[in-house]
Amino acid sequence: MERCVDFFNWLDHDTTLKILMYLEDPSDLLRVSSVSRSWRDFVIANSLSKQLCFRMFPCLSEVDHVMEPNSDTEGSLEVGCSKSVEWENLKREHRVYAFLAHSFSSVPLRPCILDAICASSTDNYPEESIHNTLEPRDIVERRASYWSSKGQRKRTVPETLTYKLLADICVITEISVQPFQAFFQWGSPIYSPKSVRFRMGHPKSPMDDPIGEPCDNCADDSFIWTYTSPEFPMAQENRLQKFKLPEPVLCIGGVLQVQLCGRVQRQEMDGLFYICVSHVEVIGRPLSDAFSIGFLESSGKFVLSVHSYTQQCLPNETSCELPYAYLEGRVRDLEQIMNLLRGQRGGGDSDGDGDGLVVGYEDNEGDEDDEIEDEEDMVVL
After folding, report:
1. CB 25 within 8 Å of CB 102
2. Helix axes 26-33 and 37-45, enclosed angle (nearest 10)
């Protein structure tokens, strides 16, 4: 114990490198680089943190260069000799990729959808909008909450639902989809797709706000897809069905698309096939505001930037910003409850046009003996 021996000095470069390449935990690699200056220099000079990230997610090989807070990459290249500039770049890459690798495992799993972007088609907008799939409840504002495609004569016509994720860099592990059961139709049919598939990517051009309006083929024209999952069969059941990806997927660009393949249920009214979805949920690790990306249109590569080396400030579930439509709906629900408590009870379609599903209350009074019958739930189409 009195004499410490550095085994790096007893092994050749290739053997030492091969040993350290077996490290798969980012924390282990950080511990190695903290042993001594020579070990740290070896880790930095051989870009071990960068190679670890590439092994975890090969799509990171498309990174053109990295940037740190208040760093000027172009300016740093013009100052100093070539060896010192190269060494500073290696140290910068080590810090960025070590922090990135650590974030992949340290950020907790949570729902990752920020908002809906668009649907390939919508039957009745906005009553059956894709935004309804963000709400886990089946009934909102006394109406059924779901998205519905347009009707098709062929079973094979697919549909897509496209969403914006919480961060530009997200590690996605599983996706859940719940088909909608039309309990207001005869036989309560379930309008489920035959199977589902998922794609992840980024917009072709900067997108300030989600599109919000349904438009045909919006995903094919506006996005570049970097990952496509296997096709998963879907059960014709009214429940949230979970689809675990074969391995965690790094979504660079913050856009996820659900592809709904094949139609099963025909609507009795018009004889057309529809797909209806009640809720979509995406679980993963959003890397929040600590990282951002910038795509280089000419090369197809992107710049990875770190804004802070402190732990990502992930919003808590209680502080997560909710869509305005959802908050507005909760206010209306409270108003309706207050009206019921005050005795202002009513039923039927609120706007009188007879469209949409309304779950209300009906009071029946006798003409002669003022007999009051029990209130019953009713469904108005």
Report:
1. no
2. 130
Separation CA 283–CA 370 (nearest Å): 56
Gyration radius of the chain's alpha carbons: 27
Which residues, in sequence order, are CB contacts of 162 under 8 Å at separation 6+? 116, 117, 118, 119, 218, 219, 223, 255, 256, 257, 258
Mean pLDDT score of the chain: 80
Contact 256, 172 (CB under 8 A): yes
Q: Distance between CA atoms of 157 and 150, rounded to whole angstroms?
A: 10
pLDDT band at 9 (very low <50, low <70, confident <90, very high): confident
Pair of tokens at residue 85: 């500039």
pTM given for the model: 0.76
Confidence (pLDDT) at 130: 96
Q: Are residues 30 and 103 in contact, defined by beta-carbon separation less than 8 angstroms? A: no
Residue 123 and residue 269: Cα distance in Å, rounded?
14
The Cα 96–Cα 99 span in angstroms is: 5
Q: Give 50-78 as a DSSP string.
A: HHHHHHH-GGGGGEEEEE-TT--HHHHTT
Residue among 131, 125, 159 nearest 234 (CA): 159
In the DSSP assignment, the letter for residue 149 is P
State the Cα–Cα distance between residues 112 and 173, nearest whole angstrom: 10
The answer to whether 275 and 191 have CB atoms below 8 angstroms apart is yes
